[in-house]
Amino acid sequence: MTQKLRWGILGCAQIATGSVMPAIQESKTGVIEAVASRGLEKSSKVAAEFGVSKAYGSYEELLADPGIDAVYIPLPNHLHREWVIRAAEAGKHVLCEKPIALSSAEAEEMVAACSKAGVHLAEAYMYRHHPRIAQLREIIARGDIGELRAIRGAFTYNDATDTTNIRFKSAWGGGSLYDVGCYPLSAARLLFDAEPEAVTVQAIFSPEHDNVDMMASGLVEFPGGVSLTFDCGMWAYNRQLLEVLGTEGMIEIPMPFNARFEDADFLVYKGGEVSRFAAAGANPYVEQADHFAAAVNGGKPFAAENDPVLSMRLIEACLDSARRRERVSLT
């Protein structure tokens, strides 16, 4: 690459200022050219904090800047569709926070708009870019734990007292499935290397939290009789877990979705013994930025073009199942 990818940050959410912006600055391939917010005061403050030369008081101004190649969108979920499409129409590549949309129909529109504009679109599942994921997939592909039989995943935390949190706004795409359930769902699709056939989900919909799903648990059926069992929540004890069960062994990943350096190890159970694998450590946000730039510059694809659509199809099926209290088929 002769020139670093020039990024514009479309919003000043905490995920942007706390994780993604520092990662782009640390990356080998990117530089932040501009920051935009709904008001110039906020974007100017963030730009000054990060040593960014340009601050805009509207998203439109940033998209009109010809010196920006790609944008990162950390806006609330219900704004993703509009600003991904507008960014694509402005000729910008797009990295959008998860979940990428409120529905698979929205995701289809976004993918189509980016395809038409000839720009790259990716959903920001940063954990997929941690080098540990490649190690796990290699172990599974070699058959070290035999044939896959099941995956179990969990991601919960308790923030229920903060009733002003945007994650508790139903119209804005709030709820635990959108916020953290998407992680074990995404991981199962990745590790099974398949798309699910049906889901059965139960959830707690809380009236005091705008009736979003504050806790959900379910069964996701994949081809061949294998399955993911998962739970997720914003009203439960903080924890993360991912287990991959095979006919000859099992892999346990203690911190599957937020690991960086010292917490990247995982355990393999086989033949009555437990082996600790010292996984390569990394900041997954930095890896994500570099992988995105490589894809933009004609390298290895960041993800399949229709991956965001398939991701949203599964999440909306889970929500549908929880609301109807019925098994929902995806086929």
Summary, kept brief:
The protein is α/β, with parallel strands linked by helices and 331 residues long. The chain is 34% helix and 28% strand. 47% of the residues are buried.
Model description:
By secondary structure, the chain is α/β, with parallel strands linked by helices. The chain has 2 domains: 5-124, Rossmann fold (3-Layer(aba) Sandwich), CATH 3.40.50.720; 127-329, 2-Layer Sandwich (Dihydrodipicolinate Reductase, domain 2), CATH 3.30.360.10. The chain is 34% helix and 28% strand. It has 9 helices and 15 strands. The chain has helices at 14-26, 40-50, 59-63, 80-89, 104-117, 131-142, 176-192, 284-296, 307-324, and strands at residues 5-10, 30-36, 54-56, 70-73, 93-96, 121-123, 148-158, 198-206, 212-221, 227-233, 235-246, 249-253, 266-270, 273-277, 328-329. The chain has a 9-stranded mixed sheet with strand order 14-13-12-11-7-10-9-8-15. The chain has a 6-stranded parallel sheet with strand order 3-2-1-4-5-6, sandwiched between helices. A hairpin with a 2-residue loop joins strand 13 (266-270) and strand 14 (273-277). Helix 4 runs parallel beside helix 5 (104-117) and helix 5 (104-117) packs antiparallel against helix 9. The longest helix has 18 residues, at 307-324. It is globular and about 60 Å long. The chain starts with a strand and ends with a strand. The mean pLDDT is 96.
CATH structural architecture of the largest domain: 2-Layer Sandwich
Secondary-structure element pattern, one letter each:
EHEHEHEHEHEHEHEEEEEEEHHE
* Spatial ordering of strands, largest sheet: 14-13-12-11-7-10-9-8-15
Structural class: alpha/beta
Q: Quickly count the helices.
A: 9
Mean pLDDT: 96
Q: Tell me about the biggest sheet?
A: 9 strands, mixed
Strand tally is 15
CATH superfamily of the largest domain: Dihydrodipicolinate Reductase, domain 2
Sum up the overall morphology in one term.
globular
Give the total of domains. 2
Question: Which spans of ≥5 residues are poorly predicted at pLDDT below 50?
Answer: none
Strand content: 25-35%
